[in-house]
Amino acid sequence: MSKKIRIKSCELDFTREKLISPFGFKGRYLNELWQTVVRIKSYNFTAVCPTVESVLWSDGAVFGDNPPVASSAMMMLVTNRALKMLENTEFSSPDIVIASIVPELCKYAERICGRKVLETFVLNSLVGIDYALWTLYAKENSVTTFDGIIPDYAKKALSSRHEKLAHIPLISYAVTKEQLKQTLDSGTALLKIKIGKATGINLTHEEDMRSMLEWDKARMSEIHNIASQYTTNLTKSGKILYYLDANGRYDSKERLCELLEHAEKIGALDKIALLEEPFDAQNEIYVGDLPITINADESAHSLDDVKYRLSLGYKAVALKPIAKTMSVSFRMAEAIHAAGGQAICADLTVNPLLVEWNKQFAARIGALEGMKVGCLEVNGHQNYVNWESLKKLLPEGLSCPPEKNGVFTLNENFYKKSGLLFGQNGYDNYFL
Q: Has residue 374 got a pLDDT over 70?
């Protein structure tokens, strides 16, 4: 039985990390990502972990209502509120703690933001806290590996031990043909492609949707014309596969079907491994009759949301321990596994330390149907100005090496030494 752990104190800091170029999705753009850092002390140990805030991803309405810097500050206030709630309290399991504070934090976030917020907004604010709590849990209970912190209910869902993870690069709106070719030359097998671009201002809804669809068709043709020239030994078909991410931009199944008809016309339909979040989170359209696998991401805030999306015909869910907390992701993985669905560990343009946490999770979930190996999306190295400096904050002994030939190789050492993540890291220096 896990021991009771009393939280002695909590601290918060942050830094603003610039992006190499504007990062586009949901029809909008980011120029920077705030990294909030928390330090939580028990009476025996200390844990320091960062969160990468992405208000645009977690709640596009909050981002749209405010300047980017204001929306990031609002999320940081939610993190601060959570830390205040945790001081001088006891816990035995981090997942129970996270579940208990989310409802009150949602109400607090609504007061701060002046509108109803999505639960994902709150979960995004809690990632650093969640990892710090799991780190304290491991230290207090003498756990030294990631396997040791997996709750019993999630063990079957995280029972794989992949020897390889295919790196999933992000193909954002701004990626050029030349950059795409460089990515494919590196050996990638699965491209995550952002669709749903807003192409103008002061457009009516119908004009926006029509221009978006035409842009997406052209983008699909452009990418497929290049990618179809490549082969890979990481997929069952030997072809490069596509992971389309619409970020909720489509307004109807009929319009989405137009895109799929175009994909079939150009010979790309059977290359689409996943299509993520075609509709906004409030949309309840049944998707089980579409000819491809539809993947839930932002709409899957909680365990109940995962179950509901599965009932709507979604056959896959993007697990984001680095965006929705590891605690919630454990529960989601259990539900997806029980339903026979697929899962994938997606990125949030996170820093190298969170990449390493995400890699531990990805190494243990099943492979996608069209893949021979596991998968992991990593795009921070494509987007952060200071990526090399961020790598220096990793615990000594971890280097977040770049993938080789499109693959992260996981050996026995990777599994044995996952406990390095429970040790000290460079973020400790934020609190001198």
A: yes
